[in-house]
Amino acid sequence: MRPVYRRVRVALKGRDAAASVVTILLALMLVGLPLLALASVVVGQAYKVSESAFTWLQYQVEHTSLEESGKWVSEQFPMVADFLPEQEKLVEMFGQAASKVATVFMKSLTTMTTGRHPFFSIVL
Predict the structure, then answer these.
(1) Which tens digits make up the pLDDT trace of 58-109?
(2) In whole angstroms, what is the distance from residue 4 CA to residue 19 CA?
(3) Dihedral through CA 28, CA 123, CA 117, CA 40, nearest 10?
C-alpha cells in the first residue's frame, strides 16, 4: 500500500494525514466491498439451503412414519440398532436438536447482517 500512499500524497500536495485517510479508505473499499459481496452471497445460499432442507425434512416427516425411519436406520447401520432410543425419546431429541440448530443459524444470520460478526470485526 506504500506506493499507493505515495501517489495519493503527491496528488494531495504533501498532506500526509489526508493521504493516509484516503489510502485507508481505498484499501477498505478494495478489500471490504468484495468481502461484503461474498458474505451476502454466502448468506443467501445458506438461506436457500436451509429452506430446501426444511422443505425436504417436512416432507420426510409427513410421509414417513417414525417406525419406518427407525427400521431404515437399523437396516442401514446394524451396529447402531442396539443404541437407538425409544420412538418417543427419539422424537423429543429430534425436536430439541432442530430447535437448537434453528436458533444457532438465526443468531448467526442476525449477527452477520447487523455487522457484529467476529469475522468482519477482525477483517475490517
Answers:
(1) 777 777 766 676 677 777 777 776 776 666 676 777 788 888 887 787 777 7
(2) 9
(3) 60
What residues contact residue 84 under an 8 Å CB cut-off, 6+ apart?
Answer: 70, 73, 74, 90
Q: Comparing 4-8, 16-20, 87-91, which segment has the lowest mean pLDDT?
A: 87-91
**Residue whose entry in the numeric block shows the C-alpha cell 436451509:** 50
Q: What is the pLDDT of residue 63?
A: 72
- Taking the C-alpha atoms of residue 102 and residue 94, their distance in angstroms, rounded to an integer, is 12
Those residues with Cβ within 8 angstroms of residue 39's Cβ, 6 or more apart along the chain or in another chain: 112, 120
The label of the residue with cell 430439541 reads 96
Asked if 39 contacts 121 with a C-beta cutoff of 8 angstroms, the reply is no
| Cα 109 from Cα 124, distance rounded (Å) | 18
Rg of the Cα trace of the chain? Answer: 26
> What's the whole-model pTM score?
0.42
| Non-local CB neighbours of 118 within 8 Å, separated by 6+ positions | none
